[in-house]
Specification:
The protein is an alpha+beta fold. It has two domains: about 30-95; about 100-180, Alpha-Beta Plaits (2-Layer Sandwich), CATH 3.30.70. The chain contains three helices and four strands, in the order ααββαββ. Strand 3 (about 160-165) and strand 4 (about 175-180) form a beta hairpin. The N and C termini lie far apart (about 160 Å).
């Protein structure tokens, strides 16, 4: 066996293409960095989506709670308005209701010496407290005494409406009317209230 080395008989080959520029060595590095960045961005988006879903659920709960609170507040407002309406009704009733004692005293004091009251009824209307139904039955005095009594009622600030009057023997008079309270504009106004206005 020969120990002489064989000589390479192949001829040198010329390069077919030019070698790549050295800057392209950065391509794999940039690719790896972009892969890592893509993974990081995906993880970031994933966590942000989870946070947004949790925030959405939380806000939906807050909206439901506020809606419930709003409905409860509206119910309380309606209760307050109803209470206010009732208070105004009571206030109007109290403001419209006048004491009956001055009216009864005024009628009694208007009677002459010879006249006497057989029956006097004063009934306040429940729905309209400023209206009082008067029923007066007296003897002696006739129309003159009735005009005097109505003038006394007028001085107290009442006017008579829907009046009915019947006269009998001996100066007996049965008078019924609805008295409505009005502000006294002139204390000397002694007009007869025996009218149907």
């Amino acid at each position: 066996m020969s120990t002489q080395p064989f000589h390479d008989i192949k001829t040198e080959r010329q390069d077919i293409t030019k070698p790549l520029p050295r800057i392209l060595i950065l391509v794999p590095v940039i690719f790896c960095i972009s892969c890592v960045a893509a993974i990081a961005l995906n993880l970031l988006f994933f966590f942000k989506i989870k946070e947004s879903e949790a925030a959405k659920i939380e806000w939906q709960g807050i909206i439901e709670e506020e809606t419930l609170r709003k409905s409860e507040t509206e119910k309380q407002i309606e209760l307050i308005k109803d209470e206010d309406r009732r208070a105004k009704d009571v206030y109007d009733w109290v403001g419209g209701s006048r004491q009956l004692q001055p009216l009864a005293v005024g009628v009694a004091r208007s009677m002459g010496v010879k006249s006497s009251i057989e029956e006097l009824s004063l009934v306040r209307d429940v729905e309209n407290p400023h209206q009082i139904r008067i029923g007066l039955d007296f003897v002696n005095g006739g129309q003159k005494q009735l005009d005097s009594t109505l003038s006394a009622i007028n001085e107290l600030g009442y006017r008579a409406y829907s009046a009915n009057q019947t006269s009998g023997e001996g100066g007996q008079v049965d008078y019924q009317a609805t008295l409505i309270w009005q502000k006294v504009s002139n204390k000397n106004n002694n007009l007869s209230l025996n009218n149907n206005e």
